[in-house]
Design brief:
By secondary structure, this protein is mainly α. It is globular, with a radius of gyration of 21 Å. It binds phenylalanine.
Amino acid sequence: MTREAREHWGSKLGFIMAAAGSAIGLGSLWRFPYVTATNGGGLFVLAYIFFTFAVSLPIFIAELIIGRRAQRGPVDALTSMSCNTGPWRNISWLCVITNFIILSFYSVISGWSLHYLILSLQDFTAQRTAEEISALFDRFYVASDLNIFWLGMFLALSAAVVLGGIKKGIELWASILTPGLFVLMLCLLLYCSSLSGFWPALEFLFRPDWSHFSSTGVLEALGMAFFTLSVGLGILITYGSYMQPTQSIPSTAITVAVLNVCVSLIASMIIFPLIFTFNMQPDQGPGLVFKILPVLFNQLPATKLLSTLFFLILLLTAITSSISILETLATTGMEAWGWSRRKSVFIWSTAGFFLGLPSALAGSGLLLPNWTSIYGTDFLSQINALPDWMLTIGALAFAFFVGWTLKPEIVEQEYKKASSALSLKFFPLWIALVRYFVPLAIISIVLHKLGIFQLLSC
Ligand code: PHE
């Protein structure tokens, strides 16, 4: 693909919808609520919001700057902007590998939402006891054929969107799916605000409780802030590379970060009132959405509608995120090996399917049968935890690249292009965050994770 032929987003709003679609995903709807619950609510939520704006958002802006300046995906962008010196090319390949790994297991979990959407349409909770409804998920988890089928279906759906290209594929679909998601979520929120558990849920979510404050929670909040904003993987370099110079990077980034935090909070304001209304414990782990919510929907009027709406929302968020991962891989194939978009999408999604098989078969143990007995947890849980590390390395690398390697004039010019007076005022703060605060925060957290030093004594 030559520079002249590069496609661009058709409109500013279209790009915001695509970037917000990438950010808002299973991370906000599936992971955020249960991790918030296991960390005791309140302070964890505050820490998450703080890290989103103080650490993730500056990197989000940095990635867009790299992408728009280079007009290339992560591999070509980092290689050309660093004149192929230093570790940058290798880091960009690490990002590509991480995207590939995430695509594989993310599609498995997204496939579950597709399965549950179809089940909801069939009113699957009717005439079933709570135990039977929960047990359905356990049975589904070990069903190899169903997991493989939904993995394939989900990847095929994502590939169909990415095949359409930037404007007619990703932007078009994101402009329909992302606002659709908001409308559906607001409907569910309105409903949940009438439940008796709504106020206790808000209290749990927003009331700081020091007795539940732990250093692990702080670390998890940082990881969550990276994951839910999709930073550290070069996805925003890719999306930025299709950006026009007439769009302001900081304003776009702030809009996406605010939307993303709002969705994570709204998702929790939907899920926790349901849990509190029925006096259940919120810290139910990853099964929260698939095992517990259907049981609760079943005890409310309009079960079928509620359940269908919820799993449709989950599916929409999953698709708009997975297309951003697949697009990054497709762009890499097109730029690094000169593949056509069609060939690149086909190869990456097929490869993603094969890499997804061990995750899809984690429950049944059909592949890698001894994994759980050797490592203590199944393959899916382990691979799910792996990207957090790689994302952290990627985020740190982008902060260094933009803060310390790129020419400051280039960075300033890209930041300031088409920016409002208000965004211009934030430039010194942003650059200080990228140069000092972000690397320091990440390094301290990594050292803590490695057990090299304690952040907090509790
Ligand atoms: N941000 C997405 C979510 O919240 C996950 C994601 C991570 C998507 C990394 C793309 C890249 O689910």
